[in-house]
Design goal:
It is elongated and about 55 Å long. It has three helices and six strands. By secondary structure, the chain is α/β, with parallel strands linked by helices. It folds into two domains: 84 residues, no CATH class; 38 residues, no CATH class. Strand 4, helix 1 and strand 5 form a beta-alpha-beta unit. Strands 1, 2, 3, 4, 5 and 6 form a six-stranded mixed sheet that branches.
Length: 136
């Protein structure tokens, strides 16, 4: 079991995707960097095992764990696969939104949203108020 204690900070520069993360695998707590990939084998394609920026990887988060990957010392880097953890219903909803041709992909769903729920979020955020038709 992998527990995320601290996700770390997103890295917008060269190197791992997240730095200074803290996770627990079993009874061991790890601190270091986390890398994200579609497939675990992308690690080798990107040549991370020979890049010193990736020396302190504690976890690889992947959509598909198609291969064990190793760091420069030959130690297998733990990976967590998301493919088996994401609901098929959620994935279909995501695909539908991403392929929508509307300016706002979810605009057809707005009328079905509970007004009280939205108003409480708008009230909390105080950013902007948009008048939209809601079902009560």
């Amino acid at each position: 079991m992998v527990q995320i204690i601290k996700p770390g900070s997103q890295n917008n520069n060269q190197g791992p995707d997240f730095s200074n993360a803290k996770i627990r695998i079993g009874k061991t707590t790890w601190a270091g960097n986390v890398e994200l990939h579609i497939r675990s084998s992308d690690w080798n394609i990107h040549k991370h095992s020979v890049d010193p920026n990736f020396d302190n990887i504690i976890l690889q988060v992947v959509w598909q764990n198609d291969r064990d990957i190793k760091d420069k010392n030959g130690v297998i880097v733990p990976a967590i696969e998301l493919k088996s953890r994401v609901s098929k219903i959620l994935l279909e909803k995501y695909k539908s939104l991403m392929s929508a041709s509307h300016f706002i992909p979810c605009e057809k769903s707005v009328p079905a949203v509970n007004r009280g729920c939205c108003l409480s979020h708008l009230k909390d955020d105080n950013d902007i108020f948009v008048a939209l038709p809601f079902q009560d």
